[in-house]
Amino acid sequence: MKKRISVFTLSVFLLSLILGSMLGVYADTPDGTIIYQSNFGECSSLADANLIYDQGEISDVRFENGKLVLDNRDNTDQDVFLKFDPAVKLPDGVDRFTISWEHTYLEDTGSSRYLAMNFFYRDTDNYSGSWLRCESNLFTCDVKLDGSFTHYEDLGEFEAADFGVTGGAGVTHNSKLVYDKGTLTAYVDGIKIGSGINENEVAEGEFGFMVKVECGVVLDNFIIYTGTGDPVYPGTETEPEDSGTPETADNSESSVPVPAATKTGDDLSTILIIAGVAIIAGVVILKIRGKKNTTK
Ligand SMILES: [Ca+2]
Q: Which residues of 41-63 are buried (b: 16+ CB within 10 A; e: fewer)?
């Protein structure tokens, strides 16, 4: 009888271990988990950066000095939408994330042309996001959540040229979007420049971005991660690249896009393997115990 209880206890222990590990991964993804990252250092095509077109195409795409150049200035036809392949999505149960990137607009980019970050992207008519742009002398920020726009024009001390669509081409900035359960806040160079709230927002869909017609932009240090703090780089305490520092060479870069879909798949496989091994071990133990009991 004593042995039966210990086998039962062991089974319950194994089962709770399996369920615990599954719930742990799917309901409680830690803040700072990177779901996409690229410094574009080892890329020579959009596919290398896990990017695909979803609408339109940019005639001049190239990688220079470890940065992605998207020169859409000759395109007067339609805005170009890009997204990730494999798709980048939030892990289940996560509704807080940060997108951070470095951008430089090219000379002669048209007035009010810009790069826009999209999230909860279902298609070109159905997504949320934010764009930061200059309109003549005015720097504006739009925040789009669940189809409703908030347009910010009074952004205080900012000079349009500093944010560079027309006058400020060639100036590199670090932008960041922080989404926290329906509240979106936009930062440029660490300064808050706009925000929007929509409590009805559903945290579903993919991540991507849009390059406006007549816009040329250089992208670097692109990262999407869970939570509103800092990203956690696996196996290292330091960031792989000091964002904002101009690059001369790309030797120091570790440019490996981390698509969410692959990560989630790997996690799932690991769980299934662990669960399988645990179940087999449990059955073997039960059989051995059973044999011992019958031989006694
Ligand atoms: Ca780079």
A: bbbeebeebbbeebebebeebeb
Query: Residue 246 C-alpha to ligand 1 middle, in angstroms?
Result: 9
Both structure tokens of 237? 């305490």
Segment 215-232 shows an average pLDDT of 96
Cβ-proximal residues to 131 (8 Å cutoff; 6+ apart), any chain: 114, 115, 116, 117, 141, 142, 210
Distance 114 CA to ligand 1 centre (A): 20
pLDDT of residue 55: 97
In angstroms, the CA 157 to CA 149 distance is 23
**Confidence band (pLDDT; 50, 70, 90) for 130?**
confident
Ion ligand 1, residue ranges at CB < 5 A: 39-40, 66, 220
Amino acid identity of residue 220, one-letter, is D
Task: Note the pLDDT tens digit of each residue in 35-78.
Answer: 999 999 999 999 999 999 999 999 999 999 999 999 999 999 99
pLDDT at 127: 81
Token couple for 67:
């940065």
Distance between Cα 41 and ligand 1 center (Å): 5
CA of residue 220 to ligand 1 center, whole Å: 5
Beta carbons of 186 and 177 less than 8 angstroms apart: yes
Q: Tell me how far the alpha carbon of residue 6 lies from the centroid of ligand 1, in angstroms.
A: 57
Q: How far is the CA of 103 from the centre of ligand 1 (A)?
A: 11
Residue 244 has pLDDT above 70, yes or no: no
Cα-to-centroid distance, 254 and ligand 1 (Å): 9
Specify whether the CB–CB gap between 113 and 165 falls below 8 A: yes
pTM reported for the whole predicted model = 0.71
